[in-house]
Write a structure and sequence with these properties.
This protein is of the alpha+beta class and 394 residues long. The chain has 3 domains: 37-134; 142-278, Immunoglobulin-like; 283-394, no CATH class. Helices cover 15% and strands 32% of the residues. The strands form 5 sheets. The protein has an 8-stranded antiparallel β-sheet, with no helix packed on it. Strand 16 (298-303) and strand 17 (307-312) form a beta hairpin.
Amino acid sequence: MNIALKTVRDAAGDDVFIIGCGCPVGSAIGYVDGMRVSADTGPKWDPSFPLPWWDNGTLPCVRNMIRNSLNRVHLSHRWWHNDPDCLLLGKTTSLTDEEIVSAASIIAMSGGMLLLSDDLPALTPDRFEIATKLFPICEGVAMPLDLHCSYGSTPSLLQLWCTDESHAISPQMPTSLHSSGKNRSRIIVSSGLGTWTIVSLSNWLEVDAVVSAPFSALMLPHTDLPSGNRFGFHVFAFWGSKYAWVPCHESLDAGEVQRTLSKRLGPHETELFHVKQVTPGSVQYIGSTLHYTCGYEIEKLSLDDTSATFYLKEGKIRSAAIYVFVPGDLQKKLHATFEGINVSTDVVQRLNLGESDSTGTIALGAVIRIKILPSQTSNNSICSAGKGNLTIYF
């Protein structure tokens, strides 16, 4: 096998991308650039009759694709690019919207290859939008938090983290972060966006269930521990487009994190949560409905005393909801423009962060939502060639 693979590799040359599909894993190391790490996907969650539905291994279905992809996620970007098979978006399958979102989430969180085999112009707008939220897939590889204690040997908790350039390699970052492999689970974002955790919660049961992850497992070792955070956390649910603030008094008890990140999920449903510590004195980009990282879509940002401008990357101009934390009392209504056109804003939640310093000053702020409509964008397409900027005036 090794001789045959070496012959193919030598004949193809270094400039050719080779994907191993159905290839023995061990024999292919060093010879292929991508590797199918899962069972074939399929138009159903379980294997189709007369195949045994209870088979958790190699029979073609979305459930087995997800299971194998998660259990081999540690191979991605170490030996090759993991290939979890195609993301099926068409209405010709029997997959529910929740099952398709789960498959999309696992592909994104694993940093694998994104393959689409559907007739894209024939997709409904809601299914096509799922693909736009994944593009491009970043190379950060999520860590399963419950690999050895998961239901049916399929992890339900995954963690990634995003950080800006100035925090990518920090003098305060312990050596163990590199040696443990956690550094490969990071995604680099534009300077000024800060650092946050992405965690996916999945319910692989056939009934509704509450899935939880302790806050202590979501914090990063080179950032302030939750016990040192006095202002709480921004928590944004990506697929549900919902924001929540977790105050310190709710999450901390005698310096220990007691609160968990929890959500009731339907059968085969997944939600992506973004957890960022509140910085009371500065504007913070919390996230958007544009990209699963809630930050990679931003090319750069510019802040001054009266405004904040977020520059969106090429290909990311389409309808969206963008969430931003703005410090202060906000006595007057904020004004926002996208490419010079007025856009609607509303306050999602006002925050009373408590005393900010020794003088007893009360730190206030608010999370606002800015809505960009299709009529305000140049091209509602994944391949949009334009760029855009969003400006918030205080």
